Amino acid sequence: MSAPDKQIDIEAGRRLFARECRFVAGADNSEALPPIGLPEIAFAGRSNVGKSSLVNALTGRTTLARVSHTPGRTQQLNFFDLGGRLGLVDMPGFGFARVAKSKIKDWSGLIERYLRGRPSLRRVCLLVDARHAAMAIDHAFMERLDAAAVSYQVVLTKCDKVKPDELEERIASLGATLAQHVAAHPDITVTSAHEGIGIPELRAALAALAAPDQFD
Length: 216
Ligand code: GDP
Hints:
Layout: H1 3-17, E1 21-27, E2 40-45, H2 51-59, H3 63-68, E3 77-82, E4 86-90, H4 101-116, E5 121-129, H5 136-148, E6 152-157, H6 164-178, E7 184-190, H7 199-207
Helix pairs in contact: 1-7
Bound molecules: guanosine-5'-diphosphate (GDP).
């Protein structure tokens, strides 16, 4: 992509993510899923991966984290409307040390139905902490996404915590893993919510999946 094009994409991303981000619904069972409408991007990853921080950095506000961290909502799929052009979906973090097995089974069923029954779901951003290689639970989720034929991209978080050569190594090994997954996007987005690294680029990539806007 040439530099001027990239500039335009970054600007489109900035404009989209400057819009209002409104909470639409929380769903803890498949009947509670909101009607299919806007193109959707879902954010997933292990608990503590930095999902709330990343989404706050993307939207420049704390609405999503506030809603998603509200007691009773942490195990739900939380749906947001970004400027009437893009749906953002905060998926519950995986790896629940303190959650009963029966609850995990319910959650798993809901996720499965959401992933398989949501034609508007354009992409899942699978967040992976840059300090650790992808774990078994990340691989298992990638397999679910492959099986559901849902396009996904890996977003590395907390890159400010990792030295450049270690980061290169992580990107290379993850790249080799992703090449074996049919639904994986080959590009890995490197981010730090704390330092703003990769945020404009991720906004631009996601804006390219949004519904068109006549005023844009
Ligand atoms: P969530 O559970 O996935 O929503 O994770 P949070 O966004 O709540 O972040 C978990 C922890 O990681 C918090 O202590 C954050 O301050 C920290 N964290 C999140 N993003 C970054 C980042 O970009 N850099 C660093 N160094 N720490 C981060």
